[in-house]
Description:
Blueprint (H helix, E strand, L loop, with lengths): L1 E2 L9 E8 L2 H12 L2 E4 L7 E6 L2 E8 L10 E6 L3 H10 L3 E8 L4 E7 L5 E7 L7 E2 L5 E8 L2 H12 L2 E4 L6 E7 L2 E8 L11 E7 L3 H10 L3 E8 L3 E7 L5 E7 L3
Parallel strand pairs: 2-5, 6-9, 11-14, 15-18
Antiparallel strand pairs: 1-10, 2-6, 3-4, 4-5, 7-8, 8-9, 11-15, 12-13, 13-14, 16-17, 17-18
Amino acid sequence: MTEAATRRPPGAPCWVSLIVHGLTATQEFYSRLFGWEFLPGPEQLGPYVRAVLRGKEVAGIGQLPPDRHLPIAWTTYLATDDAGATAEAIRSCGGTVAVGPLDAGDAGRLAIASDPSGAVFGIWQAAEHLGTALAGTPGTPVWNELMTRETSSVAKFYQSVFGFETEAVVSADFDYQTLRLAGRPVAALHGVGHALPRDRGPHWMTYFQVADTDEMAARVVELGGHVLQPAREGSIGRMATVADPEGAVFTIVRPTSA
């Protein structure tokens, strides 16, 4: 277990959040799944809570206005020192800024954007709230990965906007690039071609650490969620792709190093 409440370098994943229709029911699901407790978040974001584990903030959950019908999905936030400048870079490199930049009280400044393939992500300029404050223990985000059709074109976008170094897997049948900052892996791009779900399109995937992947996949079903890809061995450990009762997709993984 590590304390992670430090200011991340620009481009590093620093927070994940979920906006849903039923805030209370969603809190109950994740509380029973991961043991999360909840504290009120910035009022400027509407009904919004921060998930807390062992007294440390690990994720955010908000509520959609009743008249909004947007896809329910976990959003990965990438750190920035200047949300305005990063928003301009996103636009100039072929991306779209849908929300913001806007202030979230004293916590910081954010924007919601999408890359040229349409995958949605957030940017976060930290002030008092530095982001996820706990890592390396079950119930915390452990990895973030962009699921897309092919990586070569979208990699150029993330390199240009955030300054990532990329390391590609040399393989004729596996399209995968690791994103690095100062030599350290922070996220990845995974090209899956026609295996990309038609109803979702390119998207960022949040991986949450668990102690037992098979047991937690069964627990997701007991709590009203769904298993989309059963437990299997992957590059970072034993993982399963699941969805919560509102359909938000995420991956649970017991890291090989755990």
